[in-house]
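Quick one: structure tokens for this chain, please?
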Amino acid sequence: MTTYRAYIVGPHSRSIGVVNLDCADDDQAITSAGRLVDHHDVELWQMDRPVARFDAGSKQVFRK
């Protein structure tokens, strides 16, 4: 399992929370992080590598 971090992004692109995710691969991590999207954007990282960004307004996922 690989550890990922999903950062909840608030106003001015500042992190207002973080959720640690243990997932087998990027696809599983993206699915798990997608469940966290509510009224705030979410950025998914694996160590120092950006994996994806979820836009809460448009409901789109941008893979890095």
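The mean pLDDT is 96.
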